[in-house]
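Readers of this paper often ask what the protein records in our data store actually look like. Nothing more is needed to write down the fold, since each code stands for a local backbone conformation. Below, we set out a record of this kind in full and without editing:
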Amino acid sequence: MSKLTKNQKAAYAKVEPHKAYKLSEAASLLKEITFTKFDASVDVDVRLGVDPRKANQMVRGVVTLPHGTGKTVRVLVLCTPEKEAEATAAGADYVGLDEYVDKIKSGWTDVDVIICTPNVMGKVGSLGRILGPRGLMPNPKTGTVTMDLAKAVSEVKAGKIDFKVDKYGIIHTSVGKISFTPEQIVDNAKEVINTIIKLKPSAAKGAYVLSIYLSTTMSPGVQIDPKSVETK
């Protein structure tokens, strides 16, 4: 095991073991324990009391962060020619169909979100084995398969994200950057956590939210008291 650096030791010293902080306290503490020279991502991890192997306990949703993600989102829109102008005007970074389908088949996936219209799903479906594992496959449930391309692109650019519980029962997603104010981090984290709470499956029994942690790219995790996150 590698030795902790001076900054890492200082960071761990400021986090009280086994203490569950209020969300506002944790957001402020993150600013003190992050020493990266780059603008680190702020992440939230929510461990749920569900069994993701059962379809009726799957938790997946979308949320628009009040203050955005803090990063530039690269959007590819796959559509027929008559919809290209709409997608371009909305701010899509790449727009087309066959040329991008071929590029993806050749290994190109240098985008963050892919949006498509329903009438091209026949061609997009063949990319499932490539896009699925990367979380890039368009899905009607997340609003990335739609005829309203202008709305879909605008929402993604404004901070719309989708999340999904993993096989361990944990939802992990970014809620901003460390350059955000503590208040902005709190607002974004609350929006995600409250959305997850509202999505509790009826089949889930017992405690639903087991633990919540807030961290940055290279900081220790700070445990959050779920009671400090008020549902709306």
In short: The beta strands are 41-48, 60-64, 75-78, 94-96, 113-116, 160-164, 170-177, 209-216, 222-224. Residues 1 and 100 are 44 Å apart (CA to CA). DSSP finds eight helices and nine strands in the chain. The two ends are 43 Å apart (CA to CA).
